Amino acid sequence: MAILCLSPFYMFLSTFPLVRPIERNSFLPRLTEFLLTDNEWNWRFREELAEQLLMTVGLFSPMDVRKHITPLAIALLMDKVAAVRHVALYLVTQLVHHVSIDTVLMRGLLAELAEQFAHSKRWSRRQTFALLCSRLVSEHVLPEKHFARDILPHLLDLSWDRVPNVRLAVARSLSQDILAQKYFSSGQSPHHELIMPVLKRLQVDQDRDVRYFAVVRPRLMECCGNESS
């Protein structure tokens, strides 16, 4: 029943003729009610909430999104259920894109994500940060120079993580997504000089899967070679 009530949420806000922007914004402070204890064990409800929020982000200003939707999105990205986190990953990616027009809001959001995930004591959240990095880069969500300044240092620090699954996610993000961008793959880039030693270290990691994902694929290796020649 809860999902049935939540499903038309986006349609109501976006198309209902009587919902003016100022009235639409009045719903924002009440969004946290969807995560009350009654729904703690209903993971499908939380998955649906993440999907509805994903469609709703564009209806609000970056400031309102940062204030009201970000806390919900972060909570969903920390969810115990993988299916909920999967949708929340898209949601947070969209949040970053939406607020990126305001540098102050964007840097504040990126700092919060780093604090909540990259520096978390829970390895699953540190892994989630690496997965988020992959999406931010591959989807070109924010300028590469901002990614390099505000996100990349935290990702590189996670290459030393004690948990193999975290190092694996870091290796895959670096080799498959970040080095796929010319901004990072160019031999003239100072970021390339930081990334390659990390990948070389991960290529001799004690974990076999980490070593596998730390290898830059031939297409990217050729690209890097052309850039540096």
Walk me through this protein's architecture.
The chain folds into 2 domains: 1-99; 130-229. The protein has helices at residues 2-6, 9-15, 21-25, 43-56, 62-77, 82-99, 103-118, 123-138, 144-150, 152-157, 164-178, 182-185, 190-202, 208-213, 218-228. It is globular, with a radius of gyration of 19 Å. The model is unreliable at 1-6 and 220-229 (pLDDT under 50). Helix 2 runs parallel beside helix 4, helix 5 packs parallel to helix 7 and helix 6 packs across helix 8 (123-138). 69% of the residues lie in helices and 0% in strands. It is mainly alpha-helical and 229 residues long. InterPro entries: ARM-like, ARM-type_fold, HEAT, HEAT_type_2, PP2A_Regulatory_Subunit_A.
